[in-house]
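Duplicate of #3305? Posting structure anyway:
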């Protein structure tokens, strides 16, 4: 059908959006920039509003903050003595994630009037899943080839990683954040699980908040309650005498950082699309910054002095540095205010960066931005790599005292893996999607197969394509085979756990073979004339083992064969992770049953903090008619020093029946006697442990009433 001649529009009319005039070449404002084929004359099209990008504009400085946070975590995991509080880098990431994700959702709601959960979760899947799956598959396959302790619990670790529940798997298994019995290959995935669970439930909460009339106030109240409730719950649930892993891993107890970022985003978010600065502010280098700046501009206009802004940034930065240098994962302060303080400092630094964009742009150096852009991949790869490298090099388990050589190799491999992952996997998926990447890979494979067949059909051609195809097939088949092999070769326990179990079995068999001592009644001595005091001979050998009761933990269990050799007939009552607070009850039960022997050795200084009151309870339970030997602990944990001091102080208060077996001093003189975990003694260390206890018992014979 021929198109009719259109009438010319009147000059006093503005841009029209009527169906008739959409057929003209001149499109309404905002549509002429859309990338679409030219509209033929006379074609009727439905007007399409310009789509606003849901991706927030770049804020200078945040990539540098990401870089510093991930580098702090790397230093803490590779060389923990250099940065004992580097683990707070994870909390900086939590605050950043809460702020950016909430800003993205609020921005979409303000600009479009709705929030597309499908688009939001699709973006999260593109950003998170491909790199995570690559790390899990590659590192599990590498562990399958290496074998040994790195495969302990690998099936549950992979399942936890792929179901976004690593933290809850760790809690259910009783995994300790600071335990070194088993080198968990994907131990760092606990924080990813917390974030992924946040990504699942928080958009639903915000949708419910957006449906309320006073949505901003409601959102602030809800977010504040989540944040405060999580922080308080962590402080209340933390047990100073127990393992803090439950409160550290839990989403419920470690949610406050994410909620703090979300609260900040809601507080300074725009209320309408027009809630942006109308007059260019010299503080802003570009109008492409997040709308969060608009409320900053109203609260702190450029006419006011800006010392508060620099003070906020400086205080926050210095505070984070101090915490990374002084805070320990074992300190009570960490869980009763320390992590919350780190989150607040991170929030202050984010606020400073947003308000100081010109400065942030100048100080954002290229190396830091390179690390920050790849921080997700670096965090994913670094821990599995250092575990595998330590296993290959026969070094100590990482996380406590990693050697410099292991740290150097792991750093290089992590950087290369993160670079490859970002260039060939993460960025292509973010740009085109998972399906497009899969289509691209499948297309290259088909072309390779076609080229190989063409070479085979022409005998004179170079076999390059066939070689490439063979190499690719071998690599793919090897990767799949090694991944499956990891599950087949998974051991039930680590080598260290096996030694502890052997010691426990030996102690159980030896205790069962010993007859239970019958309670003895001392006859009442007849009065005699006082005899001349004669000096007692200095003992040179320990008392017989059948006069010794030892109450201990896994350090004692692993040393049972050496103890039985040094003290034949010794009665050992020990359990893994036993703490000093349980000793009074155990000793009292033995005393009431009449099975407590003359010499009582208590070796429980490894797993918890000991107070003066606990030590006095132990001394009281032993009683003045028995001799108590306290064995000091040795490990690079924050409570070991204070606990050993409490033992020495108890011996000084009760010199009549308390002595110290200084295992810590023995290890300090020969540090190579410890195993890979830096806590439990190796075979030579087990002999040294038994000699240390025997020497203390030798000197304690002079104290027998």
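Output from current build:
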């Amino acid at each position: 059908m021929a198109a009719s001649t259109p009438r010319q529009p009147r000059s006093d009319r503005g841009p029209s959006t009527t169906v008739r005039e959409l057929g003209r070449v001149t499109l309404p404002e905002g549509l002429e920039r859309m990338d679409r084929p030219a509209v033929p004359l006379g074609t009727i099209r439905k007007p399409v509003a310009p789509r606003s990008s849901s991706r927030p504009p770049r804020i200078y400085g945040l990539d540098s903050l990401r870089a510093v946070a991930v580098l702090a975590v790397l230093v803490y995991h590779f060389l923990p003595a250099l940065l004992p509080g580097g683990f707070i880098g994870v909390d900086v990431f939590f605050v950043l994630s809460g702020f950016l994700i909430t800003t993205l959702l609020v921005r979409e709601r303000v600009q479009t009037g709705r929030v597309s959960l499908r688009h939001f979760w699709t973006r999260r899947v593109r950003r998170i899943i491909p790199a995570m799956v690559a790390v899990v598959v590659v590192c599990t396959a590498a562990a399958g080839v290496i074998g040994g302790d790195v495969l302990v619990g690998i099936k549950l670790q992979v399942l936890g990683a792929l179901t976004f529940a690593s933290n809850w798997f760790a809690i259910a298994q009783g995994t300790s954040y600071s335990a070194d019995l088993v080198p968990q290959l994907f131990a760092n995935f606990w924080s990813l699980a917390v974030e992924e669970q946040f990504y699942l439930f928080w958009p639903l909460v915000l949708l419910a908040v957006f449906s309320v009339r006073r949505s901003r106030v409601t959102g602030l109240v809800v977010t504040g309650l989540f944040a405060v409730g999580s922080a308080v719950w962590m402080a209340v649930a933390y047990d100073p005498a127990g393992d803090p892993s439950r409160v550290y891993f839990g989403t419920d107890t470690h949610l406050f950082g994410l909620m703090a970022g979300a609260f900040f985003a809601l507080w300074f978010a725009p209320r309408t699309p027009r809630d942006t600065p109308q007059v260019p502010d010299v503080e802003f280098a570009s109008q492409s910054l997040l709308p969060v700046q608009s409320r900053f501009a109203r609260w702190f206009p450029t006419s006011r002095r800006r010392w508060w802004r620099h003070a906020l940034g400086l205080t926050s930065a210095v505070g984070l540095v101090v915490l990374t240098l002084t805070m320990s994962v074992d300190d009570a302060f960490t869980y009763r205010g320390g992590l919350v303080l780190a989150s607040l400092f991170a929030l202050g630094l984010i606020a400073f960066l947003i308000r100081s964009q010109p400065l942030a742009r100048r100080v954002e150096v290229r190396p830091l931005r390179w690390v920050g852009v790849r921080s997700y991949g670096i965090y994913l790869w670094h821990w599995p790599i250092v575990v595998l490298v330590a296993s290959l090099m026969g070094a100590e388990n990482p996380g406590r005292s990693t050697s410099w050589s292991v740290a150097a190799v792991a750093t290089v491999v992590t950087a290369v893996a993160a670079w490859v992952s970002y260039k060939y996997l993460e960025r292509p998926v973010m740009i085109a999607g998972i399906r497009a990447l899969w289509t691209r890979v499948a297309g290259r494979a088909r072309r390779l197969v076609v080229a190989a067949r063409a070479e085979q059909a022409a005998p004179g051609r170079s076999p390059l394509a066939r070689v490439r195809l063979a190499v690719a097939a071998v690599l793919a088949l090897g990767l799949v085979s090694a991944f499956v092999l990891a599950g087949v070769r998974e051991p039930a326990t680590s080598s260290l756990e096996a030694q502890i179990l052997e010691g426990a079995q030996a102690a159980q068999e030896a205790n069962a073979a010993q007859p239970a001592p019958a309670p003895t009644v001392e006859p009442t001595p007849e009065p005699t004339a006082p005899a001349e005091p004669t000096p007692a001979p200095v003992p040179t050998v320990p008392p017989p083992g059948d006069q010794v009761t030892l109450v201990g933990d896994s350090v004692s269990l692993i040393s049972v064969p050496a103890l039985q050799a040094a003290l034949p007939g010794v009665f050992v009552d020990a359990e893994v992770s036993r703490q000093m607070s349980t000793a009074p009850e155990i000793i009292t039960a033995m005393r009431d049953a009449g099975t407590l022997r003359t010499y009582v050795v208590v070796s429980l200084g490894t797993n918890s903090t000991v107070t003066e009151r606990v030590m006095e309870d132990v001394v009281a339970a032993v009683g003045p008619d028995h001799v108590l030997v306290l064995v000091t602990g040795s490990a690079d944990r924050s409570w070991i020093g204070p606990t050993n001091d409490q033992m020495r102080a108890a011996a000084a208060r009760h010199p009549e029946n308390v002595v110290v077996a200084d295992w810590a001093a023995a290890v300090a003189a020969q540090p190579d006697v410890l195993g890979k975990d830096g806590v439990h003694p190796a075979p030579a260390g087990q002999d040294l442990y038994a000699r240390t206890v025997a020497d203390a018992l030798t000197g304690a014979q002079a104290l027998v009433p």
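Confirmed duplicate; merging threads. Residues 1-54, 274-296 have pLDDT under 50 and may be disordered. Residues 164 and 463 are 45 Å apart (CA to CA).
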